[in-house]
Amino acid sequence: MKKIVFVRHGRSEWNASNQFTGWVDVALDDQGIEEAHEAGRKLKEAGIEFDLAFTSVLKRAIKTCHIVLEDSDQLWVPEIKTWRLNERHYGALQGLNKQETADEYGAEQVQLWRRSYDTLPPMLDPDDPHSALNDRRYAHLQKRVIPMGENLETTLARVIPFWEDHIAPAVLDDKTVLVAAHGNSLRALAKYIEEISDEDIMELEIPTGQPLVYELDDDLEVIQKYYL
Length: 228
Description:
Blueprint: E1 2-8, H1 13-16, H2 30-46, E2 52-55, H3 59-71, E3 79-81, H4 98-105, H5 107-115, H6 152-172, E4 177-181, H7 183-194, E5 212-216, E6 222-227
Parallel strand pairs: 1-4, 2-3, 2-4
Antiparallel strand pairs: 1-5, 5-6
């Protein structure tokens, strides 16, 4: 039996203020830090030992990864950071208050932007000073690869190559893997692993700070999944 654990980062400062976050590099708040500590304690109590950890290049996920590993006495475990595990890019919605946006555009439209599989948000202007084009952590990428806005479908399209090239081979090599990432990058992975339909994925919510354990067979088919 093979095992992989997902941990969605704890609550961030913009989660607390109800803002669209996306690729903006927002820190965890006090509650989010405690959620990460609790996740680490649960993993230690469950006796889950990791061989490798993957996270995004955004500090709320990186910090969660470090706290989880430290509190489970595994901070030494090798860690790989990748932009491909970043949160979904919310385009021009980033920074806006979700309730105020719903008041302006309607709750149904905002729900589509947030949860649907293939509805894109309003695109961010590439010349916007907050564009990832101006962020040196993405300087190694071709500019056309850097999104100005994503839905879950396009998020999945950038996440799955990393799954196939890095995460899946590690799991197939009998390594127990931690993926500390974001709500939508983890939803994309869950959709792929569990073969969830485009319609049903709208209902999937992965809670912050709660380790989600997948037990897989030799073909990486799900035997069972559960939260600690």
